[in-house]
Amino acid sequence: MSQKVDWADAITPLIEKYKGRQHPLEYKNIYQLLVMVVLSAQDSDKHINSLAPELFTHFPNMEALSNATTDTLFPLVGKVRNFANKVKWLTGIAKQIKADENIPLTMEELVALPGIGRKSANVILREAGAEAEGVMVDLHVVRVAPRLGIATGTDPKKIELQIMEQIPQSQWGEAGMAISFLGRETCRPSHPQHEECIMSSVCKYYKEVHGS
Question: In this model, does residue 3 exceed pLDDT 60?
Fold first, then answer.
């Protein structure tokens, strides 16, 4: 990992570019986001967005979801990957939380819920405008952060810790989503668009490719 880059300064333009942009999951409130985040694990945001409207017509809030069963949820989300476990997690969360206003907004409380890890918790905290307690690391961040040089390896937990060490807490909430959006739009797996990248001046991968 390069120690020459002042990442707090270097990542600022990227954060400014994407600051406040909503997560690609098309939710309308934090209840919907929590449900969709759980469903989207190992699945695609696009797939979850396609089925969410009908799901929330039947189960519009946490109270309604607490009365759901596998049989009532199967027609709505039965095609979601790992459906059986996700239904257990969601109904378990709903029975525990009981109402939308009881959704916790701290890392400790969120990761204690079934089916929610640090990535999901970081997404929920960011979208809810709560204080950041970590950096969101999804598959795009796992790919892009080592390319940039702000982290190394492929372990999401280690990448998160490395990014947290490189930038101040005030940037944590937006940094992960900003890197993720960069990965979705510019730093693609096989054909990164170097000439369009806002981070090319500090990017380790760019310098390796261009020999600078």
Answer: no
Instruction: Judge whether 120 lies within some domain.
Output: yes
Do 145 and 80 have their domain in common?
no
Q: Give domain status of residue 1, yes or no.
A: no
- In this structure, the answer to whether residues 120 and 38 fall within a common structural domain is yes
Q: Looking at the whole model, is its pTM more than 0.90? A: yes
Half-sphere exposure of 27 (CA within 13 A, CB side): 24
Q: Is the pLDDT of residue 211 over 80?
A: no
For 116, the domain range is: 30-128
With tokens 């406040």, the residue in question is 20
Residues 159, 163, 169, 171: what is their CA dihedral angle, to the nearest 10 degrees? -110
Pair 140, 180: CB distance under 8 Å: yes
Write down the pLDDT at residue 212: 61
Is residue 38 included in any domain, yes or no? Answer: yes
Express each pLDDT in 42-82 by its tens digit: 999 999 999 999 999 999 999 999 999 999 999 999 999 99
Fill in the amino acid letter for 169. Answer: Q
- The dihedrals phi and psi of 170, each to the nearest 5 degrees, come to -60, -20
The pair of structure tokens assigned to 182 is 């960069």
Task: With CA atoms as reference, report the closest residue to 142 among 168, 126, 171, 118.
Answer: 118
2 pLDDT more than 50 = no
Number of domains in the chain: 2
